[in-house]
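Box 3.1 A note on notation
Throughout this textbook, protein chains are presented in two layers. The first layer is the amino acid sequence; the second is a token string describing backbone geometry. Keep the layers aligned when reading.
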Amino acid sequence: MKLTMRTKNDEYDIILERGCIHSIASYISLDRKVFILTDQNIPDIWINIVKEQCPTSMVYRVPGGENSKSIPVFEEVLTACLEFHMGRKDLIIALGGGVIGDLGGFVAASYMRGIAYMSIPTSTLSQIDSSIGGKTAINLGNVKNIVGAFYQPKLVLIDFDTLSTLPERQKINGLAEAIKAGLIRDPELFELFEQGDIDSSLEEIIYRSLCMKRDIVQQDEKESGLRKLLNFGHTIGHGIESYYNLDTYLHGEAVTMGMFYFITSNEVKERLKNICIRMGLPISAHFDIQKVYQLTTMDKKASGGTISTVWVDEPGKSYMKELQQEEILTILQNKPI
């Protein structure tokens, strides 16, 4: 399968095919220096497959986890690119999950004011969501994705086979973003999770999620309006994630908890709760409400005392509402489930 992303200034293909990791040169030139950015959690099998196809390459591994999306690691990767004598015509390959995609994309956007990069996402989170759309970022302290750039890849290769080595918790974590996609835009996608047999529907889940995001990004690349819908669950979800120092709850787990606060229907909340219980996703956490509220005020969506929030009345029906920041505190105080 192939999707094509067309934005105002960029166009690139998203290849969804088992085994495509073995034929990268069929889609993009590797006859140049290739900097393969990955992390310590990515199995050697995938790294070696990529490296063997690149005549002039180096592999740079960062520690696994959210803490690698930091200014010190960002500087280390830039320095490694410089020491490898990367030029403006060379290529960065981001091989890994959402952390590597965000970090690698921001390095590519920054090095020499922008060089080419492609993404080979190896997690459900990155295959479903973060590998497309051009959002690249690192964290500042415990504040998520506050430093970054909109910078589109040249190619995204999604090989479903790479999910075979993904730990189960990470697999479920990424699927939370597909649940989000179904709630905001695709009721049939949401219903796939209610049917229970997720493994047999996994490729369709990933494809439908990408179609939804592609269609939104093509209309609103820089998040001036419609693309804000993709932030459903993220306002409070990011606050919970940051409260726990980015190392207790995974991104999708925190977003799942954040979604409950912005669903207006008790019936839909119950449907989501049943899905989460079946899949093993958390539905709530204990935290200091005031501290999480303070973290939400530092969110990118907050501006001039207001914050953009996304609400769902029923699967497929979402909308945005500007709230005063103090209203988030009230929402937090009213436990959703």
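The two ends are 39 Å apart (CA to CA). The chain has twelve helices and twelve strands.
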